[in-house]
Specification:
InterPro entries: Carbohydrate_kinase_pred_CS, CARKD, Nnr, Ribokinase-like, YjeF_N_dom, YjeF_N_dom_sf
CATH architecture of the largest domain: 3-Layer(aba) Sandwich
Strand content: 5-15%
Helix content: 40-55%
Number of helices: 18
Organism: Denitromonas iodatirespirans
Radius of gyration: 26 Å
Number of strands: 18
Strand order of the largest sheet: 1-9-18-17-16-15-14-13-10-11-12
CATH class of the largest domain: Alpha Beta
Number of domains: 2
Bound molecules: ligand NPW, potassium ion
Subunit structure: Homotetramer.
Catalytic activity: (6R)-NADHX = (6S)-NADHX; (6S)-NADPHX + ADP = AMP + phosphate + NADPH + H(+); (6R)-NADPHX = (6S)-NADPHX; (6S)-NADHX + ADP = AMP + phosphate + NADH + H(+)
Largest sheet: 11 strands, mixed
Distance between the termini: 7 Å
Pfam family, one: YjeF_N
Structural class: alpha/beta
Oligomer: single chain
CATH topology of the largest domain: UDP-N-acetylmuramoyl-L-alanine:D-glutamate ligase
């Protein structure tokens, strides 16, 4: 079954939902959060006898930890709680949770104890959640480093402490969880930049709240269910004309590999025909590995096709700029990648032509290209990837994909998504060209623009995950291996969808 997508809220949205739900919530939300954490912890401690350690912080995240500790104490499990703050300064709900823990007979240590000889059954991080305001220093930083050094499973409550829940940045130092239980809904920072490295396995506990009923979700996690409408089985009486023509433009001298990779990906995504227009006058007339690709001069190829992707290996000279101008003037859906993005970043006239286009435009930058387009540094883009992709989409009135782990997609209508497929095997040359080709291939088959973008981004990562599962990578995974995996997945998903 194709799992449905989950909503994503920045911290401000989670706060709005909490504030609306809190007055009537029975049992209170913190009780639900502590209980949900305890249930998840039980699963992680199967076959792990002995004590668990819960490190509690000075806010409500710590409160969740005290509730969780009380559940284990009452169930007769040995649990050790460390809290270095002043209980008198705990916020209301957390103070009640500490009192209930104390009244149940729980003891609170003011420093981390030494681990028992057999190790902890589980280490729980209830130090900071969505209220983290600044980099962690001093005693809390020491605690996090010490906890990270412990063997065995490590669970974070709501957010790994030290991770910014909105951006995925590490503020000072962050707890490295093997499991994270997050409440109400996903948050962007858990899914992009350094978030996935710190969350481990991520589980959402909704606390019996329907978040969308309180506040419509601004963002969504990418899942195949979002583009499954396009999974049409092919009629027996099909012919290539039904599946459209994709056009890839690029390949200046010494850079022909990039558009050829994109072309192969477009074929594997199912395009009826793929034209590759190369700028290099001495380019080979045929791709001997993929002779189905129809290699043309760039000018010639531009007159073909239903969907155009321009940029892989394009170069930035006047010939390239002129081709980009022609592509922008066409009526077709247009994917801009690599040097096409760099040209637009450097030339206001080209940027204006991209922004004013009637047919859809998709920008697919990596962080450095995004920085050039936004006239800032790659670091600034990475500091807040979500804001960056939304700003790109707004500024160019275009669809934007910001690549990198936890790729982000923003549409001109304001909707955004985060993709979770993919792995470090994709940190290799040519992977971006494959994404560009997939997009062109799906657009050529007349997938609606949003479905094509979401589908291409997800397939791209899922194909790499399939290779990884077969032992092909992450080390040494290469871009030319991806298109075959894309084909397998796409056919599987279409068949699966029609069996349901
Ligand atoms: N609200 C609800 O309904 C529910 C909330 N729930 C739970 O509450 C969590 C949010 O709780 P929260 O708002 O109290 O924030 P939290 O993450 O505990 O941290 C705030 C404390 O940390 C401090 N502090 C911050 N940064 C610091 C730093 N770098 N270094 C040192 N101190 C720092 C900050 O101090 P201050 O900035 O005021 O000096 C304040 O004392 C949420 O993630 C979920 O787990 C669930 O129970 C469900 C219901
Ligand atoms: K935490």
């Amino acid at each position: 079954m194709l799992q449905s997508s989950q909503p994503i809220y920045p911290v401000a949205g989670i706060r709005t939902i909490e504030t609306a739900a809190m007055p009537t919530a029975k049992p209170p939300l913190m009780e639900r959060a502590g209980r949900a954490s305890a249930e998840e912890a039980v699963r992680l401690m199967i076959d792990r006898p002995g004590a668990l350690l819960i490190a509690c912080g000075p806010g409500n995240n710590g409160g969740d930890g005290f509730v969780m500790a009380r559940h284990f104490l009452q169930a007769g499990r040995q649990v050790v709680v460390a809290f270095s703050g002043d209980t008198a300064k705990l916020p209301g709900d957390a103070k009640k949770a500490w009192e209930a823990w104390r009244d149940a007979g729980g003891e609170t240590l003011s420093d981390l104890p030494a681990a028992p000889p057999e190790g902890w059954a589980l280490v729980v991080d209830a130090l900071f959640g969505i209220g983290l305001q600044r980099p962690i220093t001093g005693r809390y930083a020491e605690w996090i480093r010490a906890l990270n050094a412990l063997p065995g499973p490590r669970m974070s409550i709501d957010v790994p402490s030290g991770l910014c829940a909105d951006t995925g940045r590490v503020l000072g130092v962050a707890f490295r969880a093997t499991h994270t239980v997050t409440f109400i809904a996903l948050k962007p920072g858990l899914l992009t930049l350094d978030g996935p490295d710190h969350c481990g396995e991520l589980v959402v506990k909704r606390l019996d709240l329907d978040a969308n009923a309180f506040l419509p979700a601004p963002g969504w996690e990418v899942r195949p269910a979002l583009f499954a409408d396009q999974f049409t089985p092919r009629r027996l009486n099909a012919h290539k004309g039904l599946f459209g023509d994709a056009v890839i433009i690029g390949g200046a001298p010494s850079m022909c590999g990039a558009p050829l990779l994109a072309g192969r990906a477009a074929l594997r995504a199912g395009a009826g025909r793929v034209f590759v227009g190369l700028l290099d006058p001495r380019a080979p007339a045929v791709d001997l590995v993929q002779p189905e690709l129809m290699i043309r001069s760039a000018e010639h190829a531009l007159s073909e096709g239903q969907a155009i992707a321009i940029g892989p290996g394009l170069g930035r000279d006047t010939v390239a700029a002129d081709l980009l101008r022609q592509a922008l003037a066409s009526d077709h859906a247009l994917v801009l990648d690599a040097d096409a993005l760099n040209l637009i970043a450097d030339d206001d006239t080209l940027a204006g032509a991209a922004t004013r286009r009637h047919a859809p435009v998709v920008l697919t930058p990596h962080p450095a290209e995004a920085a050039r387009l936004l006239k800032c540094s790659p670091d600034q883009v990475q500091q807040n990837r979500l804001d960056a992709v939304i700003e790109l989409s707004r500024r160019f009135d275009a669809h934007a994909v910001l690549k990198g782990h936890g790729s982000l997609i923003a549409h001109p209508n304001g909707r955004w998504l985060i993709n979770r497929s993919g792995n470090p095997g994709m940190s290799a040359a040519g992977m971006g060209d494959v994404l560009t080709g997939l997009l062109a291939g799906l657009l050529a088959q007349r997938w609606p623009i949003e479905a094509a973008i979401i589908g291409a981004v997800h397939l791209h990562g899922a194909a790499a995950d399939l290779l990884l599962a077969k032992g092909i990578g992450p080390i040494g995974m290469s871009a030319s291996e991806l298109p075959d995996a894309v084909r397998i997945l796409l056919n599987q998903w279409v068949a699966q969808h029609h069996r349901q």
